[in-house]
Amino acid sequence: MKLSVPFVADNTYIDFLVENKSRISSVYFAPPEGLPLDARVQSGSLDALFFKHHLPRLGEIKTYCLFNTRFITPDRYFDLRFLNRILDRLQALDSNGGLSGIVFSDMYLLTALSKTGHKQVKSLEAVPGINTMLDNAPKAFSLLEAIRKTRFKLPGKLVLDRSLNRDFKALENTVSAIRQAYPDVDIELMANEGCLNHCPFKLTHDAQISLSNTRLVPEMTHRISQKHGCHDFFLGHPHLFLSSPFIRPEDLTAYAQLADTVKISGRTLGSRFLRQAVNAYIHQSFDGNLLELMDATRFLAESYHVDNKQLGPDFLHTLAGCNHLCVNCTRCRDLFNRTARQQTRTLKPYKDRP
Known about the structure:
36% of the residues lie in helices and 12% in strands. It is of the alpha/beta class. It has one domain: TIM Barrel, CATH 3.20.20. The strands form two sheets. The protein has an eight-stranded parallel sheet with strand order 5-4-3-2-1-8-7-6. Strands 9-10 form a two-stranded antiparallel sheet.
């Protein structure tokens, strides 16, 4: 299976992608500087010259700009100057290195961009982001119909919600229905987010990120997660990491008939993390701490080493179809106790810190 991977400003990492471009279907990257449209806390964006120089090296690989914020301030939906500035920046990206489309989560924003009449709109795919949480075919059909009513192109792929990764019956039914109705749309699955299953913090977390990116309030999302959210939860219950619906590199073959591509996340964790993760999924094998491949739970690798190879070939079969009634089950705890050990904390080089 081919991969969808982050495109970040690091020469060594880009060289690595070029060497492996036959295994990559698409790249995605943060929005241009000054546009508060990211679903991650803003931490810098690609320099236009870097983009212009390196993106053409990837050849025919598709390229997507992330406009996947949950929301923007309400006045922005009516601000034609702001909306046209977004599309002007996209037009510049397209002329520099080619741009396949945008990844979005805010249908208000997509509709507002479409109504500007800007000529760039009709050349771009509108790809629903992972935060649209497409966990069934009717939801996907509704969103595709909404996109059809805009001037954007229909997406070349749909990224299904990660909750389907271990519910093979629901995944098969969803994929079958989508492929029957939209045979030209590829199916993509999220491989390595690693957060809580059906995370109870997610909607508020995403909204807090969008709010902080408006610059109306100070950024506190990381602090909140550490004190009251998923970081605090996982540190208290680390074995529940195994119930997260991630896909191990070794288990990709189980999805070969259900998906066309898999998405590798972790674009804010540095190029070293990304090279290791992409390489593991290319080779469908990883001999090390599984937590070091995860995006949301990478922080746990400082406290625990989960031996990926010790999880064994039956890992997916063992946990697939879990009903998540953890109060009546010790399966994840038992498996975690057999395969994980506590880490001795060590200082990391500054450049490798998230």
